[in-house]
């Protein structure tokens, strides 16, 4: 475990010695070097991401419909007819902003996973806000995507409060190198967002088992709301999770990315979205620095392998 995790402050030299990748290094030495800006729309626009995923055979929640113009917002009931549950999200959103999950609905009454009842007018207003750019990157005009709700696996029943837990995998030059699962809490409002108070559990990249867990950058051992022992987490279908991350490299051309994956009870691992600028909190959740890992990939990891071969290398080769 990093010694600096037990402190509120650490000197730059301590962080460097621990192999921590800082924001400036990430931006200028990694993202600028390996992520061409013309490729950003492939992941910043979730509609494009979903279409690409289908072409590359990556499992992802089905798109039910999309609303691009204000006058189309009134069609929402018609669009979701036949779907008992669904999710509304901005095509250009980030950090989980603007994601509205509907567990069931009847007529003009919509119920969220927490039991809150929303009216048609509230759903309409949420879509209108989404289109106006309230939740999008840079406040740009946006599109509201309506997709199937993930029926997440009961394996994680006690590990997340209301929200769906996900796995974030950091992929560098096609290799999955670091991972964590993000667990919603009451403090995070049921969202798997670390900055809002979700729990981050570092996962061993070879096994998908817990390394350590943190909440608001402080080590913890049990979920604050459910009391579940976080040390017992072992993500099933781990190879499939890593393969999704590895395939995302060919799919997007991005040399450094974050792949967010959820586990559906019937359909297995599903890619929710990709991020061309993944945050650095994964280092705290793992108690490991990314900088030394990136150098190791550059120096020792073989080139020109298929996604499956890169996953084999991670699972069977040296860390």
Quick one: CATH class of the largest domain?
Answer: Alpha Beta
Assign a percent range to the helix content.
25-40%
End-to-end span in angstroms? 17 Å
> What name does CATH use for the topology of the largest domain?
D-amino Acid Aminotransferase, Chain A, domain 1
Q: Total strand count, please?
A: 14
Q: How many domains make up the coordinates? A: 2
Helix/strand order, N-terminal first: HHHHEHEEEEEHEEEEEEHEEHHH
Q: So how many helices?
A: 10
The chain-level structural class is alpha+beta
CATH superfamily of the largest domain: ATP-grasp fold, B domain
Q: Work out the radius of gyration.
A: 20 Å
Summed over residues and divided by their number, the pLDDT gives a mean of 90
Q: In one word, what is the shape?
A: globular
Strand content: 15-25%
Descriptive account of the structure:
With 319 residues, the chain is an alpha+beta fold. The protein folds into two domains: 3-43 and 153-316, ATP-grasp fold, B domain (D-amino Acid Aminotransferase, Chain A, domain 1); 62-147, Dna Ligase, domain 1 (2-Layer Sandwich), CATH 3.30.1490. Helix content is 28%, strand content 23%. The protein has helices at 12-17, 23-34, 41-44, 46-55, 76-79, 120-131, 238-252, 282-286, 290-300, 307-316, and strands spanning 63-67, 86-90, 100-102, 104-106, 109-111, 117-119, 144-147, 166-172, 175-183, 199-203, 210-215, 218-220, 256-264, 268-275. The strands form three sheets. Strands 12-11-10-9-8-13-14 form a seven-stranded antiparallel β-sheet, with helices on both faces. Strands 1-7-2-3 form a four-stranded antiparallel β-sheet. Helix 7 (238-252) packs across helix 10 (307-316). The mean pLDDT is 90.
């Amino acid at each position: 475990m990093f010694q600096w995790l037990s402190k509120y402050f650490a000197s730059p030299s301590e962080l460097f010695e621990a192999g921590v990748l800082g924001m400036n290094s990430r931006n200028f030495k990694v993202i600028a070097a390996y992520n061409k800006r013309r490729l950003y729309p492939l992941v910043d626009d979730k509609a494009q991401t979903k279409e690409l995923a289908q072409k590359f055979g990556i499992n992802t929640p089905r798109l039910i419909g999309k609303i691009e113009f204000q006058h189309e917002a009134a069609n929402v009931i018609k669009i979701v007819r036949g779907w008992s549950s669904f999710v509304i999200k901005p095509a250009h959103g980030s950090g989980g902003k603007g994601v509205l999950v509907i567990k069931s609905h009847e007529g003009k009454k919509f119920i969220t996973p927490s039991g809150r009842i929303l009216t048609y007018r509230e759903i309409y207003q949420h879509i209108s806000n989404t289109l106006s750019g309230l939740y999008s990157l840079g406040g740009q005009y946006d599109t509201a995507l309506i997709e199937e709700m993930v029926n997440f696996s009961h394996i994680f029943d006690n590990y997340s409060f209301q929200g769906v837990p996900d796995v974030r995998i950091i992929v560098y030059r096609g290799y999955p190198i670091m991972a964590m699962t993000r667990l919603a809490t009451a403090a995070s409002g049921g969202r798997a967002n670390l900055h809002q108070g979700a729990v981050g559990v570092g996962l061993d990249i070879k096994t998908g088992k817990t390394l350590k867990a943190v909440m608001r950058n402080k080590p913890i051992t049990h979920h604050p709301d459910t009391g579940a022992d976080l040390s017992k987490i072992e993500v099933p279908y781990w190879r499939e999770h890593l393969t999704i991350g590895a395939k995302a490299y060919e799919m997007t051309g991005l040399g450094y990315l974050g792949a967010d994956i959820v586990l559906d009870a019937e359909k297995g691992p599903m890619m929710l979205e990709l991020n061309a600028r993944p945050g650095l909190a994964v280092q705290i959740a793992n108690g490991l620095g990314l900088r030394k890992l990136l150098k190791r990939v550059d120096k020792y990891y073989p080139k020109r392998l298929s996604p499956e071969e890169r996953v084999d290398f991670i699972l069977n080769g040296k860390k």
